[in-house]
């Protein structure tokens, strides 16, 4: 009778001279061992605030301070009805009550409502507000005597016309207006000529006029008009324009070129005198 004997194999062991002398089972290690996370250094995550950030925070927490009021001090504490009454009766100087219009508009009034209550037309309201701003710029860029010339009731119309100029040009134009006693129309021509002069670069005679002088700018405009009339065969109009140009010109170079045109007209010598 046959009998079978099964020998259970002993577990295999690995040995190598490169490993310590102990047994290693053949069971493979886990593929993705879970290692405990490394502790984060909190100090590495803290970014010290920059100086600009701290300054911003300081600005945010500063108490609000309203901008200074454009109103004269005597009008600042008046209620709405009192302000409307001042405008209705035009109490005080025009440049003092003109900012009341702006204040009322900021309160929610519209120009037509102000016109109905005070009798000041919408166009005049705009003129007063703009002229007051121009006058304020003159306070900074010219002398007190020049500024005080525009305290009268006709001044807003004149100052409104020079609004298109920069502050330096306004001061020059204001003194020229005073010197020649200009009204609104002449002030408009003066401002337009000063604004337009740089754009005329390269035109006939342009280099003979000084763009930094109001009189030369105005003279150049009349000088150009004289040649336009000449092209249109209007000698009388040309002569009149050149005579106005000669009267307004401030530099000798400008006067000379104008006089050349006057003397060359129909071969006659103009009866004009340089001043």
Automatic annotation (TrEMBL):
List residues of the Rubisco accumulation factor 1 helix turn helix domain. 79-139
Which positions fall inside the Rubisco accumulation factor 1 alpha-helical domain?
A: 154-262
Q: Where is this region: Disordered?
A: 24-75
Pfam families, per the entry: Raf1_HTH, Raf1_N
What do the Gene Ontology cellular component annotations say?
A: chloroplast
Q: What is this protein called?
A: Rubisco accumulation factor 1.1, chloroplastic
Q: Lineage in the entry?
A: Eukaryota, Viridiplantae, Streptophyta, Embryophyta, Tracheophyta
């Amino acid at each position: 009778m046959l009998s079978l004997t099964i020998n259970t194999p002993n577990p295999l062991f690995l040995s190598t001279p490169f490993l310590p002398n102990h047994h290693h089972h053949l069971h493979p290690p886990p593929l993705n061992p879970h290692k405990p996370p490394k502790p984060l250094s909190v100090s590495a995550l803290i970014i010290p605030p920059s100086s600009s950030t701290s300054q911003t925070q300081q600005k945010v927490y500063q108490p609000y301070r309203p901008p200074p009021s454009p109103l004269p001090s005597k009008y600042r504490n008046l209620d709405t009805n009192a302000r409307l009454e001042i405008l209705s009766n035009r109490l005080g100087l025009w440049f003092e009550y003109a900012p009341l219009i702006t204040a009322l508009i900021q309160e929610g009034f519209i120009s037509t409502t102000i016109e109905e209550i005070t009798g000041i037309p919408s166009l005049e309201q705009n003129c007063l507000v703009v002229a007051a701003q121009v006058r304020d710029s003159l306070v900074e860029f010219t002398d007190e005597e020049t500024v005080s010339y525009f305290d009268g009731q006709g001044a807003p119309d004149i100052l409104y016309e020079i609004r298109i100029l920069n502050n330096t040009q306004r001061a020059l134009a204001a003194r020229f207006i005073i010197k020649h006693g200009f009204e609104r129309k002449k002030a408009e021509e003066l401002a337009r000529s000063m604004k337009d002069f740089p754009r005329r670069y390269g035109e006939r005679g342009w280099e003979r006029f000084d763009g930094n002088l109001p009189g030369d700018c105005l003279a150049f405009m009349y000088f150009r008009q004289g040649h336009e009339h000449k092209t249109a065969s209007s000698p009388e109009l040309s002569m009149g324009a050149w005579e106005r140009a000669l009267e307004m010109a401030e530099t000798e170079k400008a006067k000379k070129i104008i006089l050349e045109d006057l003397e060359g007209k129909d071969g006659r010598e103009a009866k004009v005198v340089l001043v």
